[in-house]
Design a protein that fits this description.
The protein is of the alpha/beta class and about 400 residues long. It has one domain: Endonuclease Chain A (Endonuclease, Chain A), CATH 3.30.870. It is built from nine helices and 19 strands. The protein has a nine-stranded mixed β-sheet, with helices on both faces. Strands 1, 2, 4, 5, 6, 7, 9 and 15 form an eight-stranded mixed β-sheet that branches. A hairpin with a 3-residue loop joins strand 6 and strand 7. Helix 1 packs parallel to helix 2 and helix 6 runs parallel beside helix 7.
Amino acid sequence: MRLPVARLPRLGLAAGLLLFPSTVPAAADFAIPGFELVHTVPVATDLKSLDIRDPAAVWCEMIDGARKTIDLEQFYATSMPGTALDRVIGRLEAAGARGVHIRFLMEKKGERMSDAETLARLKRIPNLTFRELAFSDVSGDGIIHAKFFVVDGRAAFVGSQNFDWRALEHIDETGLKIDQPAMVAKLARIFAHDWQAQALIAAGRKVPRHKSTFTPAQLDGPATLVASPAADDPEGVVDSEQALVSLLARAQHLVRVTVMDYAPLGQRKQYYDVIDRALRAAARRGVKIELMVANWNLTAEKQPYLKSLAVLPNIEVRVVTIPQAPSGFIAFARVVHTKTMTIDGCIAWIGTSNWEGGYLDNSRNVEVVLRSEPMARKLDALHQQLWLGPYAAALDVRTNDPPPHPGQP
């Protein structure tokens, strides 16, 4: 893949766009009460932190501050001795030892991705209750793909970072530390719903579901928690699938997306065009779209769909390849796993879902929508650092890239 000369945005700083990372203001200029952007910079790359804290430091600080409870909902868990996640688990052990009640809810299908010793270590923590939930028993399909935790009902973290040592050191990831009481309370209700769902299923009972209603006005506030699937969202939580489409319909000038996987396909290769139609409609209105995906996205099934976008006016697709670590190949690492979007330099979307079928329609995912120019500018800076950097290349629509093998050297 050949990296062309970058096309500079024409909207300027008035739309909240940063052309070059070197022009990024100090971290204090991006302050937004109740929310802190957190980012994993893969080690041994030319990428910079841009004055954003890393998740390991934030997680340890939050866990150390726990006095009563810590509730974690994760896809899977895998650690390695001497890593940042190893230190995080050590802080959980200390919290449990001082009497903090910890609940850890994990996706049942995540067992095959987890390390047995990590799971055993978690289960040995004093005052920790560990449960597994096959989310397909709730929604009929799908998984717990969300990655979030809540501390003392007063602070929370949501992000693309799995409970995985690689996510804290070798993968590009983005998340939010949240101190806004209303949003923390809603995240706590999502955890409570899923924790209770596990108990109901274990007792042989069905989990109650409901019909969701959505109106665009639900997204008009400064901060909105959206989640999926809609039928399993507690009261006050907005459906993420409809929210994403509604936000794209509001775009006027520029949409920037960074996501690991994008395709109008479901997990069983069924057609899922909800997001795809929204992006194409925006482009037809003259909205410029910058879509950046990981090289893992270049499977034989997904490449044609990416190319069908890349040939359209107003849409540019770039593929990011993070170089291998100097220490050698690390399976399922060295990739862009971030899931973010900005719209017109004033709306920020930060979450846990890939942009494919099976995520926003029937899996547990959580996203945060902020109507905040400071937060959108910070996300734009992260996006542009990759977009204009040495690891991103324009998708070549004339050739077929070899399929990725993230688990093999």
